[in-house]
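Build the 3D complex.
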Amino acid sequence: MNLEGFGAQLAAGAWVTVQLGVAAMAVALVLGLFGSLAKESAVPPLRWLGYAYTTVVRGLPELLVILLVYFGSARLLTDLVGLFGVDHYVELSAFAAGTAALAFNYGAYMTEVFRGALHTIPHGHVEAGMALGLPRGRIFRRIVLPQLWRVALPATGNIFLALLKDTALVSVIGVEDLMRKTSLAVGYTKQPFTFYFTAALIYLVLTGLSTAGIYLLERRTTHGMRTLAE
Amino acid sequence: MNWDVIIESIPGLLRGAWLTLELVVFSGMLGLAIAVPMAVARTSRSVWVQAFPWAYIYFFRGTPLLVQIFLVYYGFGQFAAVRDSFLWPVLSQAYWCAIIAFTLNTSAYTAEILRGAIQVVPSGEVEAARALGMSTVVTWRRIILPRAFRIALPAYSNEVILMLKGSALASTITLLDLTGMARTIIARTYMPVEIFLAAGALYVVLTFLILSGFRLVERRLNRHRVG
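Done.
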Protein backbone atom coordinates (compact mmCIF):
# COMPACT_ATOMS: atom_id res chain seq x y z
CA MET A 1 0.00 0.00 0.00
CA ASN A 2 1.37 3.40 -1.00
CA LEU A 3 0.76 6.00 1.72
CA GLU A 4 2.59 8.80 -0.14
CA GLY A 5 4.63 9.81 2.89
CA PHE A 6 1.66 10.10 5.23
CA GLY A 7 2.75 7.07 7.30
CA ALA A 8 4.38 9.20 10.00
CA GLN A 9 1.28 11.41 10.22
CA LEU A 10 -0.97 8.37 10.68
CA ALA A 11 1.38 6.99 13.34
CA ALA A 12 1.28 10.32 15.19
CA GLY A 13 -2.52 10.28 14.96
CA ALA A 14 -2.67 6.71 16.26
CA TRP A 15 -0.55 7.75 19.23
CA VAL A 16 -3.02 10.59 20.02
CA THR A 17 -5.86 8.04 19.74
CA VAL A 18 -4.13 5.79 22.28
CA GLN A 19 -3.54 8.73 24.63
CA LEU A 20 -7.18 9.82 24.30
CA GLY A 21 -8.39 6.30 25.02
CA VAL A 22 -6.19 5.84 28.10
CA ALA A 23 -6.81 9.33 29.52
CA ALA A 24 -10.59 9.16 28.99
CA MET A 25 -10.74 5.65 30.47
CA ALA A 26 -8.81 6.73 33.57
CA VAL A 27 -11.24 9.60 34.20
CA ALA A 28 -14.23 7.39 33.37
CA LEU A 29 -13.08 4.85 35.98
CA VAL A 30 -13.02 7.56 38.65
CA LEU A 31 -16.40 8.95 37.53
CA GLY A 32 -17.83 5.44 37.49
CA LEU A 33 -16.56 4.69 40.98
CA PHE A 34 -18.09 7.86 42.42
CA GLY A 35 -21.22 7.40 40.32
CA SER A 36 -21.80 3.88 41.64
CA LEU A 37 -21.18 4.96 45.23
CA ALA A 38 -23.67 7.82 44.70
CA LYS A 39 -26.29 5.44 43.30
CA GLU A 40 -25.85 3.09 46.26
CA SER A 41 -25.69 5.93 48.77
CA ALA A 42 -28.07 6.29 51.72
CA VAL A 43 -28.51 9.99 50.85
CA PRO A 44 -31.50 10.38 48.45
CA PRO A 45 -30.28 13.47 46.50
CA LEU A 46 -27.02 11.68 45.73
CA ARG A 47 -28.97 8.66 44.50
CA TRP A 48 -31.15 10.88 42.27
CA LEU A 49 -28.08 12.58 40.86
CA GLY A 50 -26.49 9.22 40.02
CA TYR A 51 -29.72 7.97 38.50
CA ALA A 52 -30.14 11.09 36.34
CA TYR A 53 -26.51 10.89 35.18
CA THR A 54 -26.69 7.28 33.98
CA THR A 55 -30.18 7.53 32.48
CA VAL A 56 -29.62 10.72 30.51
CA VAL A 57 -26.08 10.06 29.31
CA ARG A 58 -26.71 6.46 28.29
CA GLY A 59 -29.80 7.59 26.36
CA LEU A 60 -27.96 10.15 24.20
CA PRO A 61 -25.80 9.54 21.12
CA GLU A 62 -22.08 9.74 21.91
CA LEU A 63 -21.60 12.31 19.14
CA LEU A 64 -24.26 14.56 20.69
CA VAL A 65 -22.65 14.31 24.15
CA ILE A 66 -19.25 15.18 22.67
CA LEU A 67 -20.63 18.24 20.85
CA LEU A 68 -22.61 19.25 23.94
CA VAL A 69 -19.59 19.00 26.28
CA TYR A 70 -17.38 20.84 23.76
CA PHE A 71 -19.74 23.81 23.30
CA GLY A 72 -21.27 23.63 26.77
CA SER A 73 -17.92 23.67 28.57
CA ALA A 74 -16.81 26.72 26.59
CA ARG A 75 -19.97 28.58 27.60
CA LEU A 76 -19.69 27.44 31.22
CA LEU A 77 -16.04 28.53 31.45
CA THR A 78 -16.75 31.85 29.75
CA ASP A 79 -19.61 32.53 32.17
CA LEU A 80 -17.39 31.47 35.06
CA VAL A 81 -14.58 33.92 34.28
CA GLY A 82 -17.32 36.48 33.60
CA LEU A 83 -18.24 36.20 37.29
CA PHE A 84 -14.78 37.50 38.10
CA GLY A 85 -15.27 40.46 35.81
CA VAL A 86 -13.18 39.09 32.95
CA ASP A 87 -14.96 39.49 29.62
CA HIS A 88 -13.12 36.93 27.56
CA TYR A 89 -14.09 33.82 25.57
CA VAL A 90 -12.52 30.75 27.19
CA GLU A 91 -12.51 27.21 25.84
CA LEU A 92 -10.78 23.94 26.60
CA SER A 93 -8.18 22.65 24.16
CA ALA A 94 -9.66 20.16 21.71
CA PHE A 95 -7.79 17.30 23.39
CA ALA A 96 -9.00 18.24 26.88
CA ALA A 97 -12.58 18.72 25.66
CA GLY A 98 -12.47 15.42 23.78
CA THR A 99 -11.13 13.58 26.83
CA ALA A 100 -13.72 15.21 29.09
CA ALA A 101 -16.57 14.38 26.71
CA LEU A 102 -15.57 10.73 26.27
CA ALA A 103 -14.95 10.32 30.00
CA PHE A 104 -18.30 11.93 30.88
CA ASN A 105 -20.04 9.60 28.45
CA TYR A 106 -18.32 6.36 29.45
CA GLY A 107 -18.33 7.25 33.16
CA ALA A 108 -22.07 6.55 33.00
CA TYR A 109 -21.48 3.06 31.62
CA MET A 110 -18.75 2.43 34.23
CA THR A 111 -21.17 3.53 36.96
CA GLU A 112 -23.48 0.67 36.01
CA VAL A 113 -20.60 -1.82 35.82
CA PHE A 114 -19.28 -0.89 39.27
CA ARG A 115 -22.78 -0.85 40.72
CA GLY A 116 -23.35 -4.41 39.56
CA ALA A 117 -19.95 -5.41 40.94
CA LEU A 118 -20.63 -3.77 44.31
CA HIS A 119 -23.58 -6.11 44.81
CA THR A 120 -21.36 -9.18 44.50
CA ILE A 121 -19.20 -8.28 47.49
CA PRO A 122 -20.55 -10.04 50.58
CA HIS A 123 -21.62 -7.64 53.29
CA GLY A 124 -19.83 -9.88 55.80
CA HIS A 125 -16.51 -8.71 54.38
CA VAL A 126 -17.30 -5.10 55.24
CA GLU A 127 -18.57 -6.14 58.67
CA ALA A 128 -15.40 -8.10 59.29
CA GLY A 129 -13.41 -4.97 58.52
CA MET A 130 -15.53 -2.96 60.94
CA ALA A 131 -15.11 -5.64 63.63
CA LEU A 132 -11.36 -5.27 63.21
CA GLY A 133 -11.77 -1.56 63.85
CA LEU A 134 -10.67 -0.43 60.38
CA PRO A 135 -11.75 3.06 59.37
CA ARG A 136 -14.38 3.22 56.59
CA GLY A 137 -11.99 4.63 54.03
CA ARG A 138 -9.54 1.81 54.57
CA ILE A 139 -12.29 -0.84 54.42
CA PHE A 140 -13.19 0.49 51.00
CA ARG A 141 -9.60 0.72 49.81
CA ARG A 142 -8.24 -2.57 51.16
CA ILE A 143 -11.29 -4.87 51.13
CA VAL A 144 -14.00 -3.63 48.75
CA LEU A 145 -11.94 -2.10 45.94
CA PRO A 146 -9.60 -5.06 45.20
CA GLN A 147 -12.58 -7.43 44.94
CA LEU A 148 -14.64 -4.90 42.98
CA TRP A 149 -11.91 -4.57 40.40
CA ARG A 150 -11.78 -8.29 39.74
CA VAL A 151 -15.53 -8.62 39.24
CA ALA A 152 -15.76 -5.49 37.11
CA LEU A 153 -12.81 -6.24 34.84
CA PRO A 154 -14.48 -8.25 32.02
CA ALA A 155 -17.23 -5.66 31.51
CA THR A 156 -14.67 -2.86 31.85
CA GLY A 157 -12.67 -4.43 29.05
CA ASN A 158 -15.68 -4.36 26.72
CA ILE A 159 -16.32 -0.74 27.60
CA PHE A 160 -12.70 0.17 26.91
CA LEU A 161 -12.96 -1.36 23.44
CA ALA A 162 -16.13 0.66 22.73
CA LEU A 163 -14.45 3.81 24.03
CA LEU A 164 -11.34 3.25 21.92
CA LYS A 165 -13.49 3.07 18.78
CA ASP A 166 -15.52 6.11 19.82
CA THR A 167 -12.36 8.21 20.11
CA ALA A 168 -12.79 8.56 16.33
CA LEU A 169 -15.76 10.84 17.05
CA VAL A 170 -13.66 13.56 18.68
CA SER A 171 -12.04 14.22 15.30
CA VAL A 172 -15.28 16.14 14.69
CA ILE A 173 -14.22 18.78 17.23
CA GLY A 174 -10.71 19.01 15.81
CA VAL A 175 -8.63 16.64 17.93
CA GLU A 176 -5.65 15.53 15.82
CA ASP A 177 -6.33 11.83 16.30
CA LEU A 178 -5.95 8.99 13.81
CA MET A 179 -9.30 9.76 12.18
CA ARG A 180 -8.54 13.42 11.59
CA LYS A 181 -5.02 12.75 10.33
CA THR A 182 -6.55 10.24 7.93
CA SER A 183 -9.09 12.77 6.68
CA LEU A 184 -6.30 15.32 6.16
CA ALA A 185 -4.31 12.75 4.17
CA VAL A 186 -7.41 12.01 2.09
CA GLY A 187 -7.90 15.70 1.37
CA TYR A 188 -4.35 15.92 0.07
CA THR A 189 -3.95 12.65 -1.85
CA LYS A 190 -7.56 12.12 -3.02
CA GLN A 191 -7.29 8.43 -2.14
CA PRO A 192 -10.11 7.97 0.37
CA PHE A 193 -10.35 4.17 0.18
CA THR A 194 -6.63 3.56 0.69
CA PHE A 195 -6.43 5.81 3.72
CA TYR A 196 -9.71 5.01 5.45
CA PHE A 197 -8.99 1.32 4.98
CA THR A 198 -5.51 1.78 6.47
CA ALA A 199 -7.09 3.62 9.40
CA ALA A 200 -9.54 0.74 9.83
CA LEU A 201 -6.62 -1.71 9.97
CA ILE A 202 -4.80 0.44 12.54
CA TYR A 203 -7.95 0.51 14.69
CA LEU A 204 -8.14 -3.29 14.34
CA VAL A 205 -4.55 -3.58 15.59
CA LEU A 206 -5.30 -1.25 18.52
CA THR A 207 -8.44 -3.19 19.53
CA GLY A 208 -6.56 -6.48 19.07
CA LEU A 209 -3.73 -5.32 21.35
CA SER A 210 -6.26 -4.08 23.91
CA THR A 211 -8.05 -7.43 23.88
CA ALA A 212 -4.72 -9.17 24.57
CA GLY A 213 -3.93 -6.68 27.36
CA ILE A 214 -7.34 -7.20 28.96
CA TYR A 215 -6.83 -10.95 28.82
CA LEU A 216 -3.49 -10.63 30.64
CA LEU A 217 -5.02 -8.33 33.26
CA GLU A 218 -7.89 -10.75 33.79
CA ARG A 219 -5.50 -13.63 34.26
CA ARG A 220 -3.56 -11.59 36.79
CA THR A 221 -6.57 -10.51 38.84
CA THR A 222 -8.07 -14.00 38.92
CA HIS A 223 -4.72 -15.46 39.97
CA GLY A 224 -5.30 -18.00 42.73
CA MET A 225 -9.08 -17.84 42.34
CA ARG A 226 -11.08 -21.01 42.36
CA THR A 227 -12.90 -21.47 39.07
CA LEU A 228 -15.73 -23.84 38.24
CA ALA A 229 -14.33 -27.17 37.10
CA GLU A 230 -14.61 -27.49 33.36
CA MET B 1 -31.67 29.24 28.68
CA ASN B 2 -33.33 30.73 25.60
CA TRP B 3 -36.71 29.00 25.29
CA ASP B 4 -37.85 30.89 22.17
CA VAL B 5 -34.97 29.39 20.17
CA ILE B 6 -35.88 25.91 21.38
CA ILE B 7 -39.54 26.30 20.44
CA GLU B 8 -38.67 27.67 17.00
CA SER B 9 -36.32 24.75 16.36
CA ILE B 10 -38.90 22.05 17.13
CA PRO B 11 -40.42 21.61 13.62
CA GLY B 12 -36.94 21.21 12.09
CA LEU B 13 -35.81 18.82 14.80
CA LEU B 14 -38.95 16.70 14.34
CA ARG B 15 -38.16 16.37 10.63
CA GLY B 16 -34.64 15.30 11.63
CA ALA B 17 -36.03 12.79 14.12
CA TRP B 18 -38.15 11.27 11.35
CA LEU B 19 -35.08 10.75 9.16
CA THR B 20 -33.22 9.24 12.13
CA LEU B 21 -36.07 6.80 12.73
CA GLU B 22 -36.19 5.95 9.01
CA LEU B 23 -32.44 5.22 8.95
CA VAL B 24 -32.63 3.02 12.04
CA VAL B 25 -35.68 1.01 10.96
CA PHE B 26 -34.58 0.58 7.34
CA SER B 27 -30.99 -0.45 8.02
CA GLY B 28 -32.10 -2.44 11.05
CA MET B 29 -34.36 -4.63 8.90
CA LEU B 30 -31.77 -5.06 6.16
CA GLY B 31 -29.13 -5.82 8.79
CA LEU B 32 -31.32 -8.48 10.37
CA ALA B 33 -31.84 -10.13 6.97
CA ILE B 34 -28.06 -10.37 6.49
CA ALA B 35 -27.40 -11.40 10.09
CA VAL B 36 -29.56 -14.54 10.04
CA PRO B 37 -27.64 -16.52 7.38
CA MET B 38 -24.37 -15.25 8.85
CA ALA B 39 -25.27 -16.45 12.34
CA VAL B 40 -26.28 -19.84 10.95
CA ALA B 41 -22.96 -20.07 9.09
CA ARG B 42 -21.09 -19.15 12.26
CA THR B 43 -22.52 -22.20 14.04
CA SER B 44 -21.35 -24.53 11.28
CA ARG B 45 -18.73 -27.15 12.16
CA SER B 46 -16.88 -26.52 8.89
CA VAL B 47 -13.99 -24.09 9.23
CA TRP B 48 -14.51 -22.92 5.63
CA VAL B 49 -18.13 -21.97 6.18
CA GLN B 50 -17.21 -20.18 9.39
CA ALA B 51 -14.25 -18.24 8.00
CA PHE B 52 -16.07 -15.53 6.03
CA PRO B 53 -18.63 -14.58 8.71
CA TRP B 54 -15.84 -14.60 11.29
CA ALA B 55 -13.68 -12.14 9.32
CA TYR B 56 -16.71 -9.98 8.49
CA ILE B 57 -17.83 -9.78 12.11
CA TYR B 58 -14.28 -9.19 13.35
CA PHE B 59 -13.77 -6.29 10.95
CA PHE B 60 -17.07 -4.52 11.59
CA ARG B 61 -16.95 -4.94 15.35
CA GLY B 62 -13.29 -3.95 15.61
CA THR B 63 -13.35 -0.67 13.70
CA PRO B 64 -15.16 2.61 14.46
CA LEU B 65 -18.51 3.16 12.77
CA LEU B 66 -17.25 6.56 11.61
CA VAL B 67 -14.44 4.87 9.62
CA GLN B 68 -16.98 2.49 8.08
CA ILE B 69 -19.25 5.36 7.01
CA PHE B 70 -16.36 7.29 5.49
CA LEU B 71 -15.15 4.15 3.71
CA VAL B 72 -18.51 3.75 2.01
CA TYR B 73 -19.23 7.45 1.39
CA TYR B 74 -15.77 8.69 0.35
CA GLY B 75 -13.86 5.43 -0.16
CA PHE B 76 -15.64 3.74 -3.05
CA GLY B 77 -15.45 6.84 -5.22
CA GLN B 78 -11.68 6.35 -5.44
CA PHE B 79 -12.13 3.62 -8.05
CA ALA B 80 -13.08 4.59 -11.59
CA ALA B 81 -14.67 1.15 -12.01
CA VAL B 82 -17.16 1.97 -9.26
CA ARG B 83 -17.79 5.48 -10.55
CA ASP B 84 -18.63 4.14 -14.00
CA SER B 85 -20.75 1.24 -12.82
CA PHE B 86 -24.51 1.01 -12.36
CA LEU B 87 -23.91 1.25 -8.59
CA TRP B 88 -22.77 4.86 -8.72
CA PRO B 89 -26.24 6.49 -8.62
CA VAL B 90 -26.67 4.69 -5.28
CA LEU B 91 -23.15 5.09 -3.88
CA SER B 92 -22.95 8.81 -4.69
CA GLN B 93 -25.85 9.61 -2.38
CA ALA B 94 -25.23 10.23 1.30
CA TYR B 95 -28.56 8.67 2.22
CA TRP B 96 -27.78 5.29 0.65
CA CYS B 97 -24.22 5.33 1.93
CA ALA B 98 -25.53 5.78 5.47
CA ILE B 99 -28.01 2.94 4.97
CA ILE B 100 -25.27 0.66 3.61
CA ALA B 101 -22.78 1.46 6.38
CA PHE B 102 -25.37 1.08 9.17
CA THR B 103 -26.67 -2.16 7.65
CA LEU B 104 -23.20 -3.72 7.44
CA ASN B 105 -22.33 -2.57 10.95
CA THR B 106 -25.50 -3.73 12.68
CA SER B 107 -25.58 -7.05 10.80
CA ALA B 108 -22.18 -7.95 12.34
CA TYR B 109 -23.33 -7.20 15.88
CA THR B 110 -26.72 -8.85 15.34
CA ALA B 111 -25.11 -11.98 13.88
CA GLU B 112 -23.08 -12.40 17.08
CA ILE B 113 -26.19 -11.95 19.23
CA LEU B 114 -28.08 -14.52 17.16
CA ARG B 115 -25.17 -16.96 17.20
CA GLY B 116 -25.14 -16.85 20.99
CA ALA B 117 -28.90 -17.45 21.03
CA ILE B 118 -28.73 -20.35 18.55
CA GLN B 119 -26.10 -22.05 20.68
CA VAL B 120 -28.26 -22.00 23.82
CA VAL B 121 -31.39 -23.43 22.17
CA PRO B 122 -31.96 -26.51 24.37
CA SER B 123 -30.55 -29.54 22.54
CA GLY B 124 -33.50 -31.65 23.75
CA GLU B 125 -35.82 -29.60 21.54
CA VAL B 126 -33.61 -30.14 18.51
CA GLU B 127 -33.45 -33.88 19.28
CA ALA B 128 -37.23 -33.98 19.64
CA ALA B 129 -37.56 -32.43 16.17
CA ARG B 130 -35.20 -35.04 14.77
CA ALA B 131 -37.11 -37.81 16.51
CA LEU B 132 -40.30 -36.55 14.82
CA GLY B 133 -38.56 -36.95 11.49
CA MET B 134 -38.10 -33.27 10.64
CA SER B 135 -35.44 -32.56 8.05
CA THR B 136 -32.53 -30.26 8.91
CA VAL B 137 -34.08 -27.35 7.01
CA VAL B 138 -37.45 -27.76 8.70
CA THR B 139 -35.77 -28.05 12.11
CA TRP B 140 -33.99 -24.75 11.54
CA ARG B 141 -37.10 -23.01 10.24
CA ARG B 142 -39.66 -24.34 12.71
CA ILE B 143 -37.65 -25.00 15.87
CA ILE B 144 -34.18 -23.48 16.14
CA LEU B 145 -34.64 -20.03 14.57
CA PRO B 146 -37.99 -19.14 16.22
CA ARG B 147 -36.53 -20.22 19.57
CA ALA B 148 -33.31 -18.27 18.97
CA PHE B 149 -35.22 -15.09 18.04
CA ARG B 150 -37.08 -15.21 21.32
CA ILE B 151 -33.88 -15.75 23.29
CA ALA B 152 -32.06 -12.98 21.40
CA LEU B 153 -34.80 -10.37 21.65
CA PRO B 154 -33.66 -8.51 24.81
CA ALA B 155 -30.05 -8.32 23.57
CA TYR B 156 -31.28 -7.29 20.13
CA SER B 157 -33.29 -4.41 21.59
CA ASN B 158 -30.02 -3.15 23.12
CA GLU B 159 -28.38 -3.35 19.71
CA VAL B 160 -31.18 -1.29 18.13
CA ILE B 161 -30.78 1.38 20.81
CA LEU B 162 -27.02 1.45 20.12
CA MET B 163 -27.84 1.80 16.43
CA LEU B 164 -30.17 4.72 17.17
CA LYS B 165 -27.28 6.46 18.92
CA GLY B 166 -24.84 5.51 16.17
CA SER B 167 -27.18 6.97 13.56
CA ALA B 168 -26.11 10.43 14.76
CA LEU B 169 -22.97 9.84 12.68
CA ALA B 170 -25.10 10.28 9.55
CA SER B 171 -24.74 13.99 10.26
CA THR B 172 -21.02 13.76 9.41
CA ILE B 173 -21.84 12.93 5.79
CA THR B 174 -24.21 15.87 5.30
CA LEU B 175 -27.46 14.10 6.18
CA LEU B 176 -30.02 16.14 8.11
CA ASP B 177 -30.92 13.56 10.71
CA LEU B 178 -31.74 14.71 14.25
CA THR B 179 -28.11 15.58 15.04
CA GLY B 180 -27.47 16.99 11.57
CA MET B 181 -30.56 19.20 11.81
CA ALA B 182 -29.47 20.37 15.27
CA ARG B 183 -26.03 21.31 13.91
CA THR B 184 -27.60 23.20 10.98
CA ILE B 185 -29.90 25.17 13.26
CA ILE B 186 -26.93 25.95 15.55
CA ALA B 187 -24.92 27.27 12.61
CA ARG B 188 -27.77 29.76 12.08
CA THR B 189 -28.69 30.70 15.66
CA TYR B 190 -25.44 30.00 17.49
CA MET B 191 -27.24 28.54 20.49
CA PRO B 192 -25.46 25.18 20.77
CA VAL B 193 -26.40 24.25 24.32
CA GLU B 194 -30.14 24.89 23.93
CA ILE B 195 -30.51 23.12 20.59
CA PHE B 196 -28.37 20.11 21.52
CA LEU B 197 -30.37 19.65 24.72
CA ALA B 198 -33.63 19.80 22.73
CA ALA B 199 -32.26 17.24 20.27
CA GLY B 200 -31.16 15.10 23.22
CA ALA B 201 -34.69 15.16 24.62
CA LEU B 202 -36.01 13.95 21.25
CA TYR B 203 -33.47 11.10 21.26
CA VAL B 204 -34.77 10.03 24.65
CA VAL B 205 -38.31 10.03 23.21
CA LEU B 206 -37.15 7.90 20.26
CA THR B 207 -35.46 5.45 22.67
CA PHE B 208 -38.71 5.20 24.59
CA LEU B 209 -40.70 4.56 21.39
CA ILE B 210 -38.34 1.79 20.25
CA LEU B 211 -38.30 0.12 23.65
CA SER B 212 -42.13 0.18 23.77
CA GLY B 213 -42.20 -1.44 20.33
CA PHE B 214 -39.94 -4.21 21.58
CA ARG B 215 -42.08 -4.72 24.65
CA LEU B 216 -45.08 -5.33 22.38
CA VAL B 217 -43.16 -7.81 20.22
CA GLU B 218 -41.85 -9.59 23.29
CA ARG B 219 -45.32 -9.91 24.77
CA ARG B 220 -46.61 -11.35 21.52
CA LEU B 221 -43.77 -13.83 21.12
CA ASN B 222 -44.16 -15.05 24.68
CA ARG B 223 -47.98 -15.18 24.65
CA HIS B 224 -47.93 -18.96 25.13
CA ARG B 225 -46.31 -18.55 28.51
CA VAL B 226 -48.49 -18.42 31.56
CA GLY B 227 -47.81 -15.65 34.08
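Chain B has one domain: 3-221.
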